[in-house]
UniProtKB/TrEMBL annotation:
<dbReference type="Pfam" id="PF00291">
    <property type="entry name" value="PALP"/>
</dbReference>
<dbReference type="GO" id="GO:0005524">
    <property type="term" value="F:ATP binding"/>
</dbReference>
<keyword id="KW-0663">Pyridoxal phosphate</keyword>
<feature type="domain" description="Tryptophan synthase beta chain-like PALP">
    <location>
        <begin position="41"/>
        <end position="133"/>
    </location>
</feature>
<dbReference type="GO" id="GO:0070179">
    <property type="term" value="P:D-serine biosynthetic process"/>
</dbReference>
<dbReference type="InterPro" id="IPR036052">
    <property type="entry name" value="TrpB-like_PALP_sf"/>
</dbReference>
<keyword id="KW-0460">Magnesium</keyword>
<dbReference type="GO" id="GO:0030378">
    <property type="term" value="F:serine racemase activity"/>
</dbReference>
<dbReference type="GO" id="GO:0018114">
    <property type="term" value="F:threonine racemase activity"/>
</dbReference>
<dbReference type="GO" id="GO:0030170">
    <property type="term" value="F:pyridoxal phosphate binding"/>
</dbReference>
<dbReference type="InterPro" id="IPR001926">
    <property type="entry name" value="TrpB-like_PALP"/>
</dbReference>
<dbReference type="GO" id="GO:0000287">
    <property type="term" value="F:magnesium ion binding"/>
</dbReference>
<dbReference type="InterPro" id="IPR000634">
    <property type="entry name" value="Ser/Thr_deHydtase_PyrdxlP-BS"/>
</dbReference>
<dbReference type="GO" id="GO:0003941">
    <property type="term" value="F:L-serine ammonia-lyase activity"/>
</dbReference>
<protein>
    <recommendedName>
        <fullName>Tryptophan synthase beta chain-like PALP domain-containing protein</fullName>
    </recommendedName>
</protein>
Amino acid sequence: MDAVAKGILAGYPKGVADELILPGLDDVRAAAERLVGRAHRTPVLTCSALDSMSGASLFFKCENFQKTGAFKFRGATNAVELLADPERGVATHSSGNHGAALAAAARARGIPAHIVVPENATAVKLAAVEHYG
């Protein structure tokens, strides 16, 4: 396990960290390939005024332009695409973006999605989950 992985896993209880597997560069590239044609290629923007204020070069990945309005569509779609054919359905608990993303990904794959939404979820988040399926 490299130093970066050890640092990321440092906060987990002993035993749990040993079971977690962090994705490597090949995993990230494979996920990117699975998302081609499924996820939008969202823009990366810069702002010279904010660069000057921060003293750094800042880059803003505009995932608000992604399908379902959030980056969570990428992870949900990747997970759904990794399912074997016998694994024909997904379920989650979400009060917002993850639920909408998983519903959209499942709909695109033609499998059922069961999203449990808390009673106090906002109407707009509930509507998004219902809209995507």
